[in-house]
Amino acid sequence: MTTEAGTAPETRRPLLELTGLRKEFGGRHGSVAVDDVSLTVGEGETLALVGESGCGKTTLTRLLLRLLEPTAGSVRFDGQDLAALAPAELRRLRRRIQVVLQDPYSSMNPRLDIAGIVGEPMVTHDPAARGRRGRAYVRERVGELLESVGLDAGIQDRYPHEFSGGQRQRVSIARALAVEPRLIVLDEPTSALDVSVQARILDLLAELQQRRGLTYFLVSHNLAVVQQVADRIAVMRQGRLVEVGEAAQVLRRPRHAYTRQLLDAVPVPDPRRGRRFRAAGATDAAGVTGGGAGAPGDGEAGDRG
Amino acid sequence: MTTDQPTPADRTAGEPAAPKTPQPLGTAGTRRAAHAPGGGAAPAAEPVLEIADLTVDFRLDTATVHAVRGVGLRLAQGETLAVVGESGSGKTATALSVLRLNPQPPCVYAGGRILFEGRDLLTVPEKELGRIRGQDIAMVFQDPMTSLDPLRRVGAQVAEGLRHHQGLSRAEAGAAALEALDEVGIPDPERRFRQYPHELSGGLRQRVMIAAALVGRPRVLIADEPTTALDVTVQRQILDLLVTLQERHGMAVLLITHDLGVVAETADRVAVMHRGEVVETGDVLDVFDHPADDYTRQLLAATPRLELA
């Protein structure tokens, strides 16, 4: 998860290859949500997909999970074209790609206990988890998984509502690990969490990646989080990738104007760049109090529906 | 709001004296400096809003949650005071108390005073508070979609306060509302005036909320996570807009946020809340440079920073 020390993407074996992906949503007022996206994610790296709401990042994520059929283009995982697989083969391959979603409150069945939640993917994908001996096998494995994400193995009989947001996100991570995936899609995994909890979850993800050689496809709008964990960054806007590159490169020397705009907009936790200092320094000249009053940029101005 | 609190037993037994402490500075057992250097003192100007020793309880079936425990805040004319904290810290319960907007029951205002123009807002009759709400003290919430009425046109919603509070005619209030939409930077305000909230993007909706809040020229604006639901480039524009309007109209702003970046960019002073108490208050520079409280230090350390140099 380090930026500069990591292997260059060219030398990594490609695990996920998106080629010319396109997704149109139909109807008379049809729109193109994903437009000619090509992207490679190497084994063991963390690629961060960054963009604002409506840019198509969720659609792209669903395409690579094959929860949506692309209008054009292909998704290859470990050299296999997902579209060419028979349903049974696709099911076998699915266990290698797991997801951790933003909201740990709504991504768990409230009526399943923790053992049921973490064990469910095992029952689906692993024959040893079924049948008479299955239960003991699942409990043992779930216990190990819970410990590997920093939880007590003894919480298996408890229910999601008994846990805090950070603990629930750990349960989600344990569930994703249950079937030994190679790629984990992390969809805004810390956006719903407080900052102190967020930092610990990011540390856990880094540790798991190192120990298990995982590949992460991280979707995030938070550039500070992305900087902490990403090897490479892909910036998406209006369905297209406007910039892809090494994380340090994209953050420090962005080539696209939109990337620069995103970086400039991030609030900086340094009061010397804040209101009073801007006001005292260049009140009139910088247009802080000018008549423009911050007219909406194109991210905001659009009509809806 | 209360998820990260310890168990009810801990809360009730742990600090029975907390609501009565005149200056609640931090949880028991926390080592701390005697005061926040230079910043902890009250602002020089006469406060426009003063919260003293506020105690807010939520009486649930099985337990009482002490959401706010003896909070004191002073908001001076024209300044921005940011209240920062994590979920469950009591920051929103404090903000909602100013206009008595916490749901009652289960909420009980168990103690303290909120002084505005010589009156205690915790005890003024509901009718009198109704005149203050939206007129003298206005509020902007996190989610503009749920705070706007989906069935009414935008213009009418901005004009509503003027008709209600100042008795303006439909035409007069409409003209003022149109001007307010223009002032908050909404392009083509005549067209937007006649539209419904669903026809606007999130950023435009939040501009409408700000127009509705400020059209009556309140002395105090309470903004509860006003940019949390917005994209980062839109957030930047809304924060700039709030600062611009504040400088133009001179209102005091009580800004509730979880984001220290937003605090640094907009606030004059900051109050850090943790488990229902203000653990530290001070000038933004002092608090960021020399945090006196352990929790403030932890919060600052956990805040991810974009290092671009």
UniProtKB/TrEMBL annotation, chain A:
Residues 279-305 are annotated as: Disordered. Keywords: ATP-binding, Nucleotide-binding, Transport. Residues 288-299 have a biased composition (Gly residues). InterPro entries: AAA+_ATPase (IPR003593), ABC_transp_ATP-bind (IPR050319), ABC_transporter-like_ATP-bd (IPR003439), ABC_transporter-like_CS (IPR017871), Oligopep_ABC_C (IPR013563), P-loop_NTPase (IPR027417), PhnK (IPR012700). This is Peptide/nickel transport system ATP-binding protein/oligopeptide transport system ATP-binding protein. Residues 16-263 form the ABC transporter domain. GO terms for biological process: peptide transport; transmembrane transport. It holds the Pfam family ABC_tran. SMART domains: AAA. PANTHER family: D,D-DIPEPTIDE TRANSPORT ATP-BINDING PROTEIN DDPF-RELATED, TRANSPORT ATP-BINDING PROTEIN. Belongs to the ABC transporter superfamily. One of its GO terms (molecular function) is ATP hydrolysis activity.
UniProtKB/TrEMBL annotation, chain B:
Residues 1-43 are annotated as: Disordered. Residues 49-300 form the ABC transporter domain. Keywords: ATP-binding, Cell membrane, Membrane, Nucleotide-binding, Transport. Pfam families: ABC_tran. It is a peripheral membrane protein. One of its GO terms (cellular component) is plasma membrane. Gene3D superfamilies: P-loop containing nucleotide triphosphate hydrolases. It is found in: Cell membrane. Its main location: membrane. GO terms for molecular function: ATP binding; ATP hydrolysis activity. Belongs to the ABC transporter superfamily. This is Peptide/nickel transport system ATP-binding protein/oligopeptide transport system ATP-binding protein. It comes from Actinacidiphila yanglinensis. The lineage of its organism: Bacteria, Bacillati, Actinomycetota, Actinomycetes, Kitasatosporales.
